[in-house]
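Input sequence (131 aa), recorded before submission:
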Amino acid sequence: MQKTISRKKPMSSPNTDNQNMDNQSFEQLKTDYIGANPKIDELKSELKILNKEQKNRTLAIQKYMQENDINEVDISGISFSRVEKTSVSINLQSLSEIIEDPSELEAFKVAHSTTKERLKITRPKKRSRNE
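Predicted structure, token format:
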């Protein structure tokens, strides 16, 4: 299986574009990064509660609109619209059933495949309060 690879230049640091960061600056960056995490976690926790409440309100608005056959409503500039959407799921297995020639299938994969680079950050699992 051949993939098309599109390469972007590596992300530059926020404070320099053409200079290398020295070890002291990197150590300070790491300290700042770790130091910001507790405040971010606290805000995420608050936001999670607010988003859950808002989701329940949105579902109630949707239910009301369905029960009263309302297609669109404006609430203080926020527009709620009932929209029907149809999607088609295509995977390589179902596509291979349609395209019998393996070379055509391979050409399709090459033409429609993209590879992107991203930064993956894995955080440690949350510890129980007893630890």
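Checked by second reader. The first strand starts at residue 72 and ends at 75.
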